[in-house]
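Batch job 17 of 40 flagged for manual review because the log was empty.
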Amino acid sequence: MVFDGERGAIRTDDVSCTRGDGVVVIFVNGPGKQMFRAVVIERGRLIAERVALRYDDVAGFIADPAEVEVSRVDETYRFRGRMPPDVGEATWHTFQIETKCPTADDGEPASRARGE
């Protein structure tokens, strides 16, 4: 992941990818104050409805699909966009993050996945 040009990684096995009715909810629960959550609509094209990120002392949230690009190759999701400034900040934050929802043995996406 990259947040405001700074690289980092959330290393965890605690990742869930829940699907239902054209919606995927991705939750990466990392150690300490590290997490990533996204709600993606999959109807003809991918739309990142909401994205939240916390990485130690930095955090951001965006609920504007126009500010986030999302793509998927197999079960790897890539998010790129910007988040509004926090209280007391003046500039928007830029971010890029990639996470994988690996498939189960039968080829269907697993509800539990490995985080990167």
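Reviewer: the log was empty due to a logging misconfiguration, but the result itself is present. Confidence is low (pLDDT under 50) at residues 104-116. Unflagging and moving on to job 18.
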